[in-house]
Amino acid sequence: MGIMDAWKGGRIIYAYLIWVVFKAATAGGLYDAMNSLMEDVVVEAGKNVTLGCPGVTENSLVLMLEWRANGMRLLEYKSKSTTVVQRTEQNRMSLSLKNYSLQLHPVTAADSGTYECLVNNRNAPEAVIKLIVR
């Protein structure tokens, strides 16, 4: 069977489509903190802090988004609605819908840790933000 026969039978197209689907499905990969960019943010206790969602701009199409701190879900945005998962005392946490940044007001020592912004069901964040409260 020659290349033309395989082409006519659609085998090459079928194999190519399988390859494309496989590459798209594995593009996010498994989360590996060692391979993610780390951004340090240092702030004084009692001040307000805004953590930008790495890789997201005002022009990004965001259908769903999740902020995590130390592996725990903090809040999620879906269908133009924000749900705070982890309640903080005096509701100190909010999401800016302009650029999907996480706002903590005021920040406390207990807020120190690693923060991740996951967009549109991605497995891994563009970067991990390490918040250091002094």
From TrEMBL:
The chain crosses the membrane at residues 12-31. Its main location: membrane. It comes from the Eukaryota. Pfam families: ig. The keyword Disulfide bond applies. GO terms for biological process: cell surface receptor signaling pathway; cellular response to lipopolysaccharide; immune response. It is found in: Cell membrane. Gene3D superfamilies: Immunoglobulins (2.60.40.10). One of its GO terms (cellular component) is external side of plasma membrane. It is a single-pass type I membrane protein. Keywords: Cell membrane, Disulfide bond, Glycoprotein, Immunoglobulin domain, Membrane, Receptor, Signal, Transmembrane, Transmembrane helix. InterPro entries: Ig-like_dom, Ig-like_dom_sf, Ig-like_fold, Ig_sub, Immunoglobulin_dom, T-cell_Activation_Regulation. Residues 32-130 form the Ig-like domain. PANTHER family: FIBRONECTIN TYPE-III DOMAIN-CONTAINING PROTEIN (PTHR25466:SF9), T-LYMPHOCYTE ACTIVATION ANTIGEN (PTHR25466). This is Uncharacterized protein LOC112466171. It comes from Temnothorax curvispinosus. The gene is LOC112466171.
